[in-house]
Amino acid sequence: MPTPQKEAIVAEITEQLNKAKSIFLTDFKGLNVDEINNLRRELTSASVQYRVVKNSLARLSVKAAGCDELLEYLDGPTAIAFGMDDPAAPVRIIKKFDKGSDKISVKVGLMDGVLIDSTRVNEIASLPSRVQLLGQLSGVLNAPLSNLVLSLNAILSKLVFALNAVKENKDES
């Protein structure tokens, strides 16, 4: 018999699943409580919510949210990272936090309805952040305009120098 508290947890997780731009299931067997709290702080600063959830409640939430492809990965100790702003932020932070210690691993992810296996997770973790990509894009878009302005400025400068030389020649004559 479901209790109101469990129903509230299922409803909350379902809402987070529906709102999140990305969802990653992690296995955190090697982490102690302090390490999990440190990881949560880092994730929270990047608008990522990280929840350790009982698998039975997670299964109900996943079914309610229509993310059935995650069901088979809900075994053993599982925590869910919900990427709210930057879809790749959870994986980037988790991989940076782990630094090869293998205490935490990403089982699977879901981005825009596409299931991401553990091998593709490393590729996503290596992608630059959205802010960095926008900065690079603005630099690329700005470069042709900057070159045009510099070229036009050089032409005008040469014209001014030529006119100044002609003026000086006439003044001497």
Question: What features would you describe in this structure?
Answer:
This protein has 173 residues and is α+β, with helices and mostly antiparallel strands. The chain folds into 2 domains: 4-127, Ribosomal protein L10, N-terminal RNA-binding domain (Alpha-Beta Plaits), CATH 3.30.70.1730; 129-173. It contains 6 helices and 5 strands, in the order H-E-H-E-H-E-H-E-E-H-H. The chain has helices at residues 4-19, 33-45, 55-65, 89-98, 118-125, 130-172, and strands spanning 22-27, 48-52, 79-83, 105-111, 114-117. It has a 5-stranded antiparallel β-sheet with strand order 2-3-1-4-5. Strand 4 and strand 5 form a beta hairpin. It is elongated and about 105 Å long. The mean pLDDT is 86.
Based on the coordinates given, report the CATH architecture of the largest domain: 2-Layer Sandwich
Q: What string, H for helix and E for strand, traces the elements in order?
A: HEHEHEHEEHH
What is the number of E strands? 5
User: Tell me about the biggest sheet?
Assistant: 5 strands, antiparallel
Amount of helix: 55-70%
State the end-to-end distance: 108 Å
